[in-house]
Amino acid sequence: MSKYGIQKSVELSYQDTVDKVKNELKTEGFGVLAEIDMKKTFKDKLEKDMNNYVILEACNPAFAFEGIEEEPELGLLLPCNVIVFEDDEKVNVAAIDPVKALGMSENEKVNEIAEEINSRLERVIESV
């Protein structure tokens, strides 16, 4: 567990990890809205090199709809980011902890949604 969410190192290659994460997200009802290659972005924009690092913006449409209906400002905290990155010859995968991210809400229904999303993201990370 990181201070931001759920994290672990894996024994897979970087690309295999990205592929596995996408498949596991799909299994748990998430779609990937965007895939941001930070290594490429920093190289293109800043001429800086870094290890492989991707941000997957994941969304479960049913829960997003339900949450936004409850609290329209919830969109400020969506989607759920999942990252895959290399560090010191390890490949790591992590997902935001939605309970922490949505913890600002005092709406009990939003908190219940956050708990369910957290359970699903924990399963994604554990399955990789």
TrEMBL record:
Coiled-coil residues: none
Gene3D superfamilies recorded: TT1751-like domain
InterPro entries in the record: DUF302, TT1751-like_sf, UCP021774
Domain DUF302: 36-98
Pfam families, alphabetized: DUF302 (PF03625)
Official protein name in the record: Uncharacterized conserved protein, DUF302 family
Organism listed in the record: Halanaerobium kushneri
